[in-house]
Amino acid sequence: MAKNLLSRTPKIHIARALLGAAIAASAFAALPAQADSPVGAAAAGAVPAAVAAKQQPPVEGTGDVKPTAAQVLTLAKQQIGTTENSLGGGTKFQKWYMNSQRAAETIARDGGNRQAYLNAAWCAMFVSWVGENTGARSTIGWDAYTVTHAKWFKDNARWGVEPKEGSVVFFAWNGSKSLTSIEHVGFVVKDNGDGTLTTVEGNTGNGKVEERVRPKSQVVGYGYPEYRA
Questions:
Q1: Beta partners for 221?
Q2: Which residues form the Peptidase C51 domain (predicted)?
Q3: What average pLDDT does this structure show over 167-188?
Q4: What is the secondary structure of 130-178 as a DSSP string?
Q5: HSE-CB for 90 with a 13 A CA cutoff
């Protein structure tokens, strides 16, 4: 999910996360990795890392060519202003994910149906969409549940506490450093050197893709895609 330096209030964040989980539970492998997910958090750790890594399909048509961090951030920034509808959904990111191979995999993992993603919290789907459309799916990953996405980075030894340009940043509004507390995800644009980050995120408190400035105290950790230099 995406929410603020003070996007929506923590209570709203939590409510949105719970709603996403409820949708998923009724309706959503940690495969290699894209805020929150529409489907049950309980299933997040159900797939062993070794199995999850094998489940991540290769990026089609890209060979070994990876994008640069700047290219990924350029596409992410081009989405600024994209807004959800009154139901909290209907974005191209949700529509893409709903029809993706990954949605089928997460439904098999967590239950539910494709339609549930259309109005589910979409910060992770935004990150996943950017990865897909820059040819970086295999290094950015894809999921609709932030916790699963973060665990994929950690299981693949691409997790840390240092912000880097283009890294995938995971937030917990209460300052927890536990992966299971993650509530939101976005991309790091830069470390401002004053205890804050500039980020670009989907599903912010305003229900949009926005550039934000957030305190590093709310960061759980960072996933590091393998970008081309």
A1: 170
A2: 98-229
A3: 98
A4: HHHHTT-HHHH---S-HHHHHHHHHHTT-EESS--TT-EEEE-TT----
A5: 7
Place of tokens 């070794």: 50
Chain centroid offset of residue 34 CA: 3
What H or E segment, with its residue span, contains residue 10? helix 10-26
Which residues fall within 8 angstroms of residue 152, CB to CB, at 6 or more apart? 30, 31, 32, 33, 52, 56, 141, 143, 223
Write the pLDDT tens digit of every residue in 123-133. Answer: 999 999 999 99
DSSP-derived secondary structure for 90-135: --HHHHHHHTSHHHHHHHHHH---GGGGGGS--HHHHHHHHHHHTT
- DSSP 8-state secondary structure symbol assigned to residue 83: B
Q: What DSSP character marks residue 197?
A: E
In the numeric block, which tokens belong to residue 22?
């409820």
Note the pTM of the prediction, 2 decimals. Answer: 0.74
Q: What is the pLDDT of residues 28-51, one digit of tens each?
A: 333 333 334 333 332 222 233 333
For residue 41 the two structure tokens come to 């958090």
